Amino acid sequence: MAKYRTVEKSPDRPFKRRYKDIKKHKHLTHVIANVSQPFWEHVRTTAKESIGKKRRKKILPSSFETLAATEFPRQFNAKLAYEEEMHNDHTQNFHKGGGLSDAVNSTFSMLWNNISSLPGGSAVANLFGTPESGETLTALDNYNADMLQEAYKQDYNSRAATIHGWVRIPKFDSPYLAVYWSPDKDRVYASVRGSVSAEDWLYHDVGIVLTQHPGKGLVDEIRQELIDVVKEFPDSDLTLNSHSLGGAVVTDAFMQASTEDKTWLDNFDHLNYYNAGSSPIADLKPIKDMLENDARIKLFINKSDMISQAYNQARPDETPVTFAEASWNPASAHGMDQWASTPYFKDYDLPVKWGDEFYTDFNNSTWDEGKQTEAALATVATPDAGKVPWQPPTVADYMAKNP
After folding, report:
1. What is the torsional sign of CA 305, 311, 317, 322?
2. In the predicted structure, residue 16 carries a pLDDT above the cut 70
């Protein structure tokens, strides 16, 4: 790894070695995903000034033009991902030489000697010597993403009764929320979905773009639903998953909560944000305040996803993050499939382990320990409880409902 001198020792040339092109696509997109917007504006200006000028390495003028015209770094990563895909497709008459990756490397090279004096430049410089960072996506991360996908199903009966050995709690089913429970370990997983309706797209999402806030009525509604979950499971290990619009809702639900409500919400042990909804043009303060003051948060961010860009820009170094690779397709860059199990129904039909204790009566009636737990939960988990014994679904059941 290159070694650098400090700025104090050599103010005119802060880095001992000259800029070295980043040839690895994964490393280059990681650097670009993490540059600040003010620094990116210097990149764009330098690219614009480079159009038509002679370079040691031939670069297409259109590549500099594209770089100069791309407003946000995540947008440029999407274009790099397309260039890389075309380059690797041997059925296409395409080569990326002199293209976008060369253009951005050339621009970085021109900024290199003075990089520490630019806004956010020192942080960017550190990225050049640090390849792909972030935490590895774990099986539990996949499972949480799977449960989030269940929350998108507006027909509650189509939501999996069990998944990965965890049981759905229909009492908490709502248009935005799905809740699953691991009985033997007493772990609860609540998931708040993103946009699916016209109201989501035309009202809540517009509010996020303009102000960083979805509608207050929805925020208050979800906050109360989450508090109800905590009241039912006050001593359980609680995880809250959210995606897209759901992430913006969760942030406001926590940040705008009353003192009393915060005492309940503090019971959540883990807050997982999958491509959280945000706006790169709105005030970042609400997001900064949430990230800087809550150590429970883990971010899941795609390097080319514009919608979650603000969370990446605002995140402190100590906030855990897992990155997904850039994609030229905005839907796949923002979607849940990149975080979910592959295939989705992997370990879907794991048997439920009920354990020897009960943890909640679901405001119904208490029951004895041991096998009575399963029988009692069946009265909650099925609308026809007591008539037909409830059984966990199989993979065949899942495939029949999800052809």
Report:
1. negative
2. no
